[in-house]
Amino acid sequence: MKKALFPGSFDPFHNGHLEVVERASQLFDQVVVAAMRNPQKASPMFDLEERKSLIEASTSHLDNVEIVSLSTLVVDLARSLDVTVIVRGLRAVSDFESELQMAQMNRQLSGIDTVFIPTSSIYSFLASKLLREVALFGGDISAMVPPPVAKEFSSRFGGADGG
């Protein structure tokens, strides 16, 4: 069985992430999406359990996708889950350098290869950091995130559309 791990902070999970999960679910028998705590990023908008719940709701239409959360090295989780590959999404060529470096480090630490899935150009500008900023200033992000995420923003900020 080909099992893939798609790790990320997913704060928030957006349509570019969803596209990568949907495409990976067609390539692999099982995809584990791991919401991670990233100590290098500022305090999160959503805690790990909230992110896990939002990703579960956003991917509920995919039978071969499982959601977990973690606060450890990706390769340690990968080993414990017996995954055969790590999946990473690429928005633009600018993502490639840091993603390649992570892929090489993960391969050195674990022997697990990384597969890159480029997002469609309609999602190439999406970044969780930008979505958080837009939402905090009352901008409409509802078209850029799955409906469960838009609903959560709406309840938290008076509307994913800023209302």
From TrEMBL:
<comment type="pathway">
    <text>Cofactor biosynthesis; coenzyme A biosynthesis; CoA from (R)-pantothenate: step 4/5.</text>
</comment>
<dbReference type="Pfam" id="PF01467">
    <property type="entry name" value="CTP_transf_like"/>
</dbReference>
<dbReference type="GO" id="GO:0004595">
    <property type="term" value="F:pantetheine-phosphate adenylyltransferase activity"/>
</dbReference>
<dbReference type="InterPro" id="IPR014729">
    <property type="entry name" value="Rossmann-like_a/b/a_fold"/>
</dbReference>
<comment type="function">
    <text>Reversibly transfers an adenylyl group from ATP to 4'-phosphopantetheine, yielding dephospho-CoA (dPCoA) and pyrophosphate.</text>
</comment>
<keyword id="KW-0548">Nucleotidyltransferase</keyword>
<feature type="binding site">
    <location>
        <position position="99"/>
    </location>
    <ligand>
        <name>ATP</name>
    </ligand>
</feature>
<feature type="binding site">
    <location>
        <begin position="123"/>
        <end position="129"/>
    </location>
    <ligand>
        <name>ATP</name>
    </ligand>
</feature>
<keyword id="KW-0460">Magnesium</keyword>
<dbReference type="GO" id="GO:0005737">
    <property type="term" value="C:cytoplasm"/>
</dbReference>
<feature type="binding site">
    <location>
        <position position="88"/>
    </location>
    <ligand>
        <name>substrate</name>
    </ligand>
</feature>
<keyword id="KW-0173">Coenzyme A biosynthesis</keyword>
<dbReference type="InterPro" id="IPR004821">
    <property type="entry name" value="Cyt_trans-like"/>
</dbReference>
<keyword id="KW-0067">ATP-binding</keyword>
<feature type="binding site">
    <location>
        <begin position="9"/>
        <end position="10"/>
    </location>
    <ligand>
        <name>ATP</name>
    </ligand>
</feature>
<dbReference type="GO" id="GO:0015937">
    <property type="term" value="P:coenzyme A biosynthetic process"/>
</dbReference>
<feature type="binding site">
    <location>
        <position position="41"/>
    </location>
    <ligand>
        <name>substrate</name>
    </ligand>
</feature>
<feature type="binding site">
    <location>
        <position position="17"/>
    </location>
    <ligand>
        <name>ATP</name>
    </ligand>
</feature>
<feature type="binding site">
    <location>
        <position position="9"/>
    </location>
    <ligand>
        <name>substrate</name>
    </ligand>
</feature>
<keyword id="KW-0547">Nucleotide-binding</keyword>
<feature type="binding site">
    <location>
        <begin position="89"/>
        <end position="91"/>
    </location>
    <ligand>
        <name>ATP</name>
    </ligand>
</feature>
<comment type="similarity">
    <text>Belongs to the bacterial CoaD family.</text>
</comment>
<feature type="binding site">
    <location>
        <position position="74"/>
    </location>
    <ligand>
        <name>substrate</name>
    </ligand>
</feature>
<protein>
    <recommendedName>
        <fullName>Phosphopantetheine adenylyltransferase</fullName>
        <ecNumber>2.7.7.3</ecNumber>
    </recommendedName>
</protein>
<feature type="site" description="Transition state stabilizer">
    <location>
        <position position="17"/>
    </location>
</feature>
<comment type="subunit">
    <text>Homohexamer.</text>
</comment>
<feature type="domain" description="Cytidyltransferase-like">
    <location>
        <begin position="5"/>
        <end position="133"/>
    </location>
</feature>
<keyword id="KW-0808">Transferase</keyword>
<keyword id="KW-0963">Cytoplasm</keyword>
<dbReference type="InterPro" id="IPR001980">
    <property type="entry name" value="PPAT"/>
</dbReference>
<dbReference type="GO" id="GO:0005524">
    <property type="term" value="F:ATP binding"/>
</dbReference>
